[in-house]
Model the fold of this input.
Amino acid sequence: MKQIQIPVQITEVEDPAELSSQEQELIAFSRNMTEKAYAPYSGFFVGAALLLENGEIVKGSNQENAAYPSGLCAERVAVFSASANFPGVRIKTIAISARSQKNKFDHPVSPCGACRQVLLEYEFNQKEPIRLLLSGISGKIYMVEKVRDLLPLSFTADDLG
Ligand code: THU
Done:
C-alpha cells in the first residue's frame, strides 16, 4: 500500500493590480455578467468571461428553468458559446464570479463538478492549459493555472482509446 499525493497549486491574489490588465478586465466582465444571470430559483448569480487566443471575449451567465435540471451554469453557457462560435480556437483564460441574493457570499466561487469536466474536455483537446480566475463580486481572487488542477484523477478521451 502506498499513498499518492496529488498537489494542487492555487494562487491567492489579494491585490488585482498584480494581474495583467487583460485579466483584470476579464474579472470585471465576469462580475458584470452576474447581473445578467437568470436565476430566479436559486438567487445565486454567476458570470463567466473567456479570453480566446484570437483576442475574442465570450461571456455567459447561469440560466435556470422551472424544470430545474434544464438550466445551465454560467461556465458552460460561456464555453459552449465559445466552441459554437469559434470552434477550435484555444481558450486562454476563464474568469468566473458569483454573488447571492440570499447570503453574503463573497469569496472565490468554485466551479461545479460538471463544469470542471466540460472545461477539461477543451483543455485536453487544445493541449494548452486554461487559466481560471475565481472570485466573488469583490475581494480576493483565486488563480488556478489549469483545469486539470481542479479535477485530479480525471476521465478524458484518452481513457476511451
Ligand atoms: N452555478 C453556476 O452557474 N456555476 C457554478 O460553478 C456553480 C453553480 C449556478 C447553477 C445554478 O443556476 C445556481 O448557480 C445554483 O446552483
